[in-house]
Amino acid sequence: MDDPQQARSALLREPNFRWMMGGAIISALGDQFTMIALPWLVLVSTGDPLKMGLVIALMSVPRAIFILLGGALVDRYSPKSMLMISKYVNTVLLGVLAVMVFSGHMELMPISALALAIGFASAFSIPAGTSMLPNVVAPAQLPMANGIMMGIRQVTMLAGPLLAGMLIALFGDGSRAGGNGSAAGIGIAFALDSASFLLSAWTLSRVRLLHAAPKAAPEPVLRAVGAGIGMVWNDMALRTSMLYWGLCAFVVGGAMQVALPVLASTVLHGASALGLIMGVHGAGSLAGMALSGVLGKFRVRNFGTTVLLVDVLVGLLLIPLGLVLATWQAAALLLVIGVLGGFMQVAVFSWLQQRVPRAMLGRAMSIFMFIFMGVAPLSAALTGWLLQYTTLAQLFGGAGLFLVGAALLAWLLTPMGTIADGAMPPAQR
User: Where can this protein be found (predicted)?
Assistant: First the structure.
């Protein structure tokens, strides 16, 4: 089916995919309520931004530590079963948070313990969720299905915080200035997210695994994790790609996380400018994901060359970002960066899902996510340190030149430019 419109219509007519898509919309929207409500709860109950940051960190630490273990268990027990369990666990955890808020028991220690547990559950839900789609749709439908699912996630990231903020402000945000200190809005946000997990678990129960892989043979979990790492390392394309992506994320990721807020506060118009340029970047990502559905499997020569070419373009766009003097200039650059990033995000996930044997997919996706989760805090810390000694122009210029140089060196000195779409060679399976 060559016509993208017909292919999209055929995919959307599949009951299996519709159940999964419906659950994804419900769950992703609910996630945004907790992303707003949890840090706000800590802030209004303690008045300490440092404690708020520590609680948020508590969610990310177990996720990064246990995600490789989660990937091994996904391969052993199937992504659907692990995703179902994680949804039920999150239903209970968020329900407890809602009860605590409604009852007025908002002590830091139990909130921290629940945040830790939510992060632990996500170490299993993330590899399960990213491994699920190849078991639901045909291989030829994967790029389009990924584009739709990632687009849904992007839309909820744009709309969810706005809805959550309105709900919390309307029913009470816990601050005395907000109306007698009522925190009912925060409790309602947690309750809605709890209900979203329960409802999405029901929609997931309606999904049948049409292309399910045989379960991994029972073996010690740590040995299974090692087998997954060994599989990635022994496949030249996977090893080269993940090392390259990890290096680029380490250098460039901090510029987006740390330097952009500094740019907004020192050069542009403060928080409003940051919100605008990040919103534009998110809209660009959504457009890039939609573009992937229109263009299909668009490649310049092959997958690897396309990745490197896009990185060169993004690097060239990063260089002038530190020289902007107006919000519209930063927004224009980030819009194009977002489009390119959204398009490649769909391509990368689809390539990984098609490249890796199904029995190892949970572990491969967990390794992929582990690289970025582990690199993110290190990159942010490095960027913060560098900003003490460099200007924004030097930082963005250096990050952009590094990305261009890394792509060119990868083209010249590594097999990255020769990596094609398709499954792993049989000898490596």
Answer: Cell membrane
